[in-house]
Design a protein that fits this description.
The structure holds two protein chains of two kinds. In chain A, about 0% of the residues lie in helices and about 50% in strands. Chain A contains no helices and eleven strands. Chain A has strands at about 5, 10, 20-25, 35-40, 45-50, 55, 65-70, 70-75, 85-95, 100, 105-110. Chain A starts with a strand and ends with a strand. Chain B is globular and about 40 Å long. Chain B has strands spanning about 5, 10, 20-25, 35-40, 45-50, 60, 70-75, 80-85, 90-100, 105, 110-115. The chains are: A mainly beta, B mainly beta.
Chain lengths: ~110, ~120
């Protein structure tokens, strides 16, 4: 059973920079996994931030940056703002119509 | 613009079935697959499967294989997800998503399973 790994929680100071990562319990994340990143605030549907590792979804500010970090992919938020406080999920495509979500990272801005 | 509007909240008894609809607009319906994702209270996102709006071909996550059916109606550009033999741990918000450029998400439908 493939597990997608994320940090359970992270914190960042207002104006600071934080990097969230998304990996695999076994192996490296690759472009063929079509990694996507989502932001979710309480009571809201997820919002797509980044797809295919680095592409920002329409309307997403360039403070959100997707990249490769070793054998993982990463979401970096620069100039953190209070309304960046949210849950962040990555998802990876495993083939045969199966996507697997990571457990999510709860980001606190304080 | 792309919009996915889901049906309203449902309350079901254990053992019953639920069907959630997802009305789409703003793009050519048959071009992309529609996926379904659920989120139990206080938990993370869970992939259930998807359906091609072009030919109706489905891929389901193994844990839902025996209980879920996803369909589409091209005349109304609507996707449906039916989950059978409901249990209390099926209580969740169910999301549809058009699976391109990341996902375009519906607003979610709360399904509560309670006796």
């Amino acid at each position: 059973q493939t597990v997608v790994t994320q940090e359970p929680s992270l914190s960042v100071s207002p104006g600071g920079t934080v990097t969230l990562t998304c990996g695999l319990s076994s192996g490296s994340v690759s472009p063929s996994h079509y990694p996507n990143w989502y932001q979710q605030t309480p009571g809201q549907a997820p919002r797509t931030l980044i797809y295919s590792i680095t592409t920002r979804s329409s309307g997403v500010p360039d403070r959100f940056f997707g990249s490769v970090l070793g054998d993982k992919v990463a979401l970096t938020i620069t100039g953190a703002q209070a309304d960046d406080e949210a849950d962040y999920y990555c998802v990876l495509y495993m083939g045969s119509g199966i996507w697997v979500f990571g457990g999510g990272t709860k980001l606190t801005v304080l | 613009q792309v919009q996915l509007v889901q049906s309203g909240a449902e309350v079901k008894k254990p053992g019953a079935s639920v069907r959630v609809s997802c009305k789409t607009s703003g793009y050519t319906f048959t071009t992309f697959r529609i996926g379904w994702v659920r989120q139990a209270p206080g938990q993370g996102l869970e992939w259930m499967g998807w359906i091609s709006a072009y030919d109706g071909k489905t891929d389901y996550a193994q844990r839902f294989q025996d209980r879920v059916t996803m369909t589409t109606d091209t005349s109304t550009t609507t996707a449906y997800m039916e989950l059978r033999s409901l249990r209390s741990d099926d209580t969740a918000v169910y999301y549809c998503a058009m699976t391109t450029q990341g996902f375009f998400w519906g607003q979610g439908t709360l399904v509560t399973v309670s006796s």
